[in-house]
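Dear Dr. H.,

I hope your travels went smoothly. While you were away I took the liberty of generating a structure for the chain from your last submission, since the lab meeting agenda had it listed for discussion. I wanted you to have the full record in hand beforehand rather than looking at slides cold. The sequence, exactly as received, is reproduced here:
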Amino acid sequence: MARTGATMVPPFDDPRTVAGQGTIAKEIVDQLGGAPDVVVMPVGGGGCIAGISSYLRERAPQTSLVGVEPSGAASMTAALIAGGPVTLSDIDPFVDGAAVRRIGDVPYSALRSLGATVVSHASLPLITAPVFESSGPGAFLITQIDEGAVCTAMLELYQNEGVIAEPAGALAVAALEHLDIAPGSTVVCLVSGGNNDVSRYGEILERSLVHLGLKHYFLVDFPQEPGALRRFLDEVLGPEDDITLFEYVKRNNRETGAALVGIQLGAAHGLSALLERMRSSHLQVEQLEPGSPVYRYLT
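The corresponding predicted structure, in token form, is as follows:
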């Protein structure tokens, strides 16, 4: 800045930035011809939700507000629980437009004064089913959504609506199925797409399949003898299941060799039958759980 004379524009932690982002709320009201019943917004650094909620609280206090953070970077949730902004030691950078280690001081103060309430946080299980309500007109809720659900929302937006959204832009849509909204309500979801990268769609699809319960990974100890893999395919895999990854982790002169196996199910409810067939096969099998350190290298 000293060399070029440019002016630094803070991305979220400045009253002027918050006010500028708050003009989105005016656009919403103007385009609808009135205030909506519910507005669902992504939360990153907090500037956007602070601006929109400040405007609507003053001019449309009956509108319910919902802020949605990625579960792997829930800095606003952490701040509201702690009573002030805190720096997260570890975040998942996947939802890059909202993966912020520390919420802005200005946005935090705004949301705190407006009565934002946390309805789920890192000490609770991730939201996988409808578990919270809009709590009536004027509610202001902050929640978080698993990154896999965000990926599923991105794919559905593209396939069903032709909308190309970045991960942060799909946060609000991903939260919709978890909200108990009165029939006939006018609902606005804030969607963006400026940072979308098509080269990431392989990872997006992978995370979505894991979230939907269709993709699973296992460590399988195979006997080092002819036909071992064929027996696994014949005896363990279901008719609609596919192996998407097979890689020996360690193979030497031992009688068995461990392999990393990825399996995509034909339907999520087929997992229990697959596990039962694995137990009956006399193979040593360990299922790798999402969220484990090893899983980070797979998705």
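Two observations you may find useful: The chain is about 30% helix and 20% strand. Residues 121-134 have pLDDT under 50 and may be disordered.

With kind regards,
E. W.
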